[in-house]
Amino acid sequence: MAVQLKAAARKDIKAKNLIRKGEIPGIVYGPGRENIKVQISESELLSLVTKAKETTPVHIVVDVNGKNEERDVFIKTVQIHKVTGKIIHIDLYEPDPQKEMKFRVPIKFTGEAEGIKAGGIFDELMRDVDAETLPANIIEEIVFDVSKLKLGESIRVKDLTVPQNVKLLANPESVVAVIKAPRAEEIVSPAAEAVESAEPEAIKAKGKKEEEGQEEEKKS
Q1: Where is the composition biased (Basic and acidic residues) (predicted)?
Q2: CB contact at 8 A, 92 and 28
Q3: Which of 8, 90, 188, 195 has the most CB atoms within 10 Å of its CB?
């Protein structure tokens, strides 16, 4: 479901002056349509970036001289001030609805793997994957339940489930995540612990015998 956003056509005001007034400059652009320079209230924009991802459809209504112009866009770039950490500009991309577009879709893992319960380590090698589809069919994330994944087993791109109208562009054999066995030094057996705990006592006992022998030599 698209996130709603309100904006106004930007007037000939410097970006710094806009930001001081609590308005953030931006641009709506895409193939076959005229670009629109916009200004969006800071609170409205913060609300948008909090709940929307790059794969989230955004329906923007732009006030252009008292008339509303509606566009279906996606967040392309958000510029952040290096010192203040505040948003200073946003690019909103309007794709051609009749042409497929490439995008990166996040991968979300759910559940607790059997391999982790057995002492394994979940190694996540891919957090997102390249995909392609029509703008109307874009998915916001891929969910994968790892509950049945055992020690030593892995997830590959071909194991990810997406709608038929979405094409994953990565190599199907690429490893997304794996349940690795813990490293040898991380595994300490009870026998090894017993040997380690016994060593100091043995050293103490040996040292005591040596001291007693030295005392006897002095007496003789």
Answers
A1: 201-220
A2: yes
A3: 90
Average of per-residue pLDDT values in the chain: 87
pLDDT digits (tens, 9 = 90+) for 142-180: 999 999 999 999 999 999 999 999 999 999 999 999 999
E-strand stretches of the chain = 3-9, 23-29, 36-41, 58-64, 67-80, 87-93, 101-110, 121-124, 128-133, 142-145, 154-156, 167-168, 175-180
User: Residue 117 in contact with residue 149, Cβ under 8 Å?
Assistant: no
Using one digit for the tens of pLDDT, what is the confidence trace for 31-69? Answer: 988 999 999 999 999 999 998 988 999 999 999 988 999
Q: Determine the 3-state secondary structure of 52 from DSSP.
A: coil
**Which run of H or E residues covers position 18?**
helix 15-20
Dihedral sign, Cα of residue 99, residue 102, residue 103, residue 109: positive
Q: Please, which residues have CB within 8 angstroms of residue 37's CB and are 6 or more apart in sequence? A: 9, 10, 25, 26, 27
In single-letter form, the type of residue at position 61 comes to V
Cα 150 from Cα 136, distance rounded (Å): 37
What string of DSSP letters covers 119-171? T-EEEE--SEEEEEE-GGG--S-EEEE-TTPPTT-EEEGGG----TT-EE-S-
Average pLDDT over residues 121-137: 96
Decide: helix, strand or coil at residue 28: strand
Q: Return left, alpha or beta for 65; rule: phi > 0 is left, psi -120 to 50 is alpha, else beta.
A: left
